[in-house]
Amino acid sequence: MTVIAPTRTARDRLTFSTEWESATDVRIAVRGDIDASNAAEVAEYTFRRGANSRRLTLDLNGVDFLSTAGFSVLCTIHQRCVKAGVDWTLVGNAMVLRVIGICDPHRTLPVTAA
What we know:
The chain has one domain (2-113): Transcription Regulator spoIIAA, CATH 3.30.750.24. The protein contains 3 helices and 6 strands, in the order E-E-E-H-E-H-E-H-E. The protein has helices at 39-49, 68-84, 94-103, and strands at residues 2-8, 14-20, 25-34, 55-66, 87-92, 111-113.
C-alpha cells in the first residue's frame, strides 16, 4: 500500500490524498469545499492520480460544500471512468449525498453512503 502525502490547492480550501490499496485499486480522498473556483482541480487530480487504476474510490466524506460545478465534475469523472473501463464508486457524507440526490435523480453516479 502506498500513501501519497496530502496536496493542498492554492487557496488551501481543498485537500487531496491518495492511497493505493493494491496495484490497481486507488482511493482518493477530498476534503474541503468543491465549487466553481476549484472543481477542475478535483477532476485533474483524480485523472492524474487514478490514471493507471482499474478500481477507483472517490471519498468525499471530508467535503463541506459541493456546488453544481462540483457535481458536474463528478459526472465528467463518471464518463471518463466508464469510457476507460474503470470500476469506480463515490463515497460521501449526508450533505454530499443530498446534493447528488437532487442533481442526479436517475442515480447514474455509483454512490455509496459513508
